[in-house]
Amino acid sequence: MASLIARECKTRSARTTANAWRAERGYPLHMDLSDAEFVDYVKPMVLVSLHTGLRWGELVRLDWNNVDFDTDILTVLGRTAKTGKTRHLPLNSIAKACLESWKIIILRTDLSFKDVTGKREITLGKLGATF
Prior knowledge:
- The chain is of the alpha+beta class.
- The protein has helices spanning 2-25, 42-52, 56-60, 93-105, and strands spanning 67-68, 73-76, 87-90, 123-124, 129-130.
- The chain has two domains: 1-36; 37-130, hpI Integrase, Chain A, CATH 1.10.443.10.
């Protein structure tokens, strides 16, 4: 968690510096991240994974229609599960709050986690892993 928090602080700081540079030159500013719940998809993905037990492949293929905020249940469909079996997972308060915040941040698109281009392909920086 400390690493995730540090990463987000570093990203926020870099964005603030970049926007100051852009403002001095009259360029359009990037979105201000200083008050954003998350700076990108990494922290919410990690939190949801830790609090639900979702496997990587299940996580990156998660759709909003698999999340029921009324009953606090997340459904993993058999076609995306390693075992091939559909299962229903309870959402604890942290996972639910994380998903609710993420849904607001990404403007209610149909994909829970995606890269900035809207694709499901997710790259985790220095790990060099693309899924």
